[in-house]
Amino acid sequence: MRLQFILSELGIGLRRNLSMTVSVILVTFVSLTFVGAAGLLQVQVDQMKDDWYDRVEVSIFLCPDQSEQPTCASGEATGEQIEAIGAELAGEALEPYVQDVFFESKDDAYAAFQERFADEWWAEGVTADQLQASYRVALVDPEQYQVISDVFTGRQGVEVVRDQRQVIEPLILVLNRASLVAAGLAAVMLLSAVLLITTTIRLSAMSRRRETGIMRLVGASNLFIQLPFMLEGAIAATIGAALAVAGLWFGVTYLVQDWLAQSVQFVPYIGTDAVWTIAPLLVGVAILLAAISSVVTLSRYTKV
């Protein structure tokens, strides 16, 4: 009987405030979509960092002919200089830092260049002699780049020592800032959702003050009186969360995996499993929003 009464009161409240309930669902949907997008973007950034930093290399570019660097004043790196650099990379002093070393000759560099830019007209005029040899060094810890740089920067026969993270980190920085912007927008939208849920519960409580007063007179408990109002907010917020999860799933499936993954193939993209990972968080946030709004509102507007 009590359950039937609570469900009856819940249905009455949803019908009376249908437009406000729809507004709560939409605002919760938008706000939690921003929350989910910020979370997915951060997961994407972490996945990219883990994948790229594991493959990051330090490139020791050897002197080509006619370089303007002081270390290349004697011309192209000689065979003795190249062998000395290779021997030092394989030596005991750098063994704790170096995981693997690959020497790329001019011919290797030319083959890689032609493979990468095979369809570009301007690449046809490039010859192997115009490129430079290099050592590609994979580090045990990519954060230890400075050790290799200190050893080989300024050495005769070495034009420049370059860390590939210098190319990667600006992109990571942009994505991190985009994640912060999305989180900021999500916070604003969550505040809007709390205010709107609070307003909806308040209007529902005020429209049923007479019924609430009668229930007080017959000895109904606070929980019994307030439960229908709490369920109204919780149901609306949960529906909004479900829509947010569905929207994120469609976004990852069709925007990321079907479009971006085909257009830009060197990025390790997240999958729909990431959406299901954050889905419980979004539902939990929705329930928390409803709970906060209920506590703030019902203690005042269900009094008789």
UniProtKB/TrEMBL annotation:
Record carries keyword Transcription: no
GO cellular component, one term: plasma membrane
Localization of this protein: Cell membrane
Transmembrane segment boundaries: 21-43, 180-203, 223-256, 276-298
Keywords: Cell cycle, Cell division, Cell membrane, Membrane, Transmembrane, Transmembrane helix
Domain ABC3 transporter permease C-terminal span(s) in chain numbering: 185-302
Record's keyword annotation contains Ribonucleoprotein: no
Membrane protein topology class: Multi-pass membrane protein
Residue ranges annotated for the FtsX extracellular domain, each copy included: 56-161
Location (main, coarse): membrane
Protein family per UniProt: Belongs to the ABC-4 integral membrane protein family. FtsX subfamily.
Subunit-level organization: Forms a membrane-associated complex with FtsE.
Cited NCBIfam families: FtsX_actino
Free-text function comment from the UniProt entry: Part of the ABC transporter FtsEX involved in cellular division.
Entry protein name: Cell division protein FtsX
Organism: Actinotalea ferrariae CF5-4
